[in-house]
Design goal:
Number of helices: 2
Distance between the termini: 26 Å
Number of strands: 0
Shape: globular
Largest sheet: none
Order of helices and strands: HH
Structural class: mainly alpha
Helix content: 25-40%
Strand content: under 5%
Radius of gyration: 13 Å
Length: 47
């Protein structure tokens, strides 16, 4: 079972994807901005 509806939407039709995890900073209020910054710092560019 997928962890989120978004992952289920990718998995069901077989869309290739990669789950990338990062540590959440509880002081951060914008999860999207936090994710972009964390992934960018890890060398992963949005595409």
């Amino acid at each position: 079972m997928a962890a989120t509806p978004a992952l289920a939407a990718l998995t069901k039709p077989g869309v290739p994807h990669e789950v990338v995890k990062f540590d959440h900073d509880p002081r951060e209020h914008s999860f999207g901005v936090e994710a972009v910054n964390a992934l960018g710092a890890a060398g992963i560019a949005p595409g």
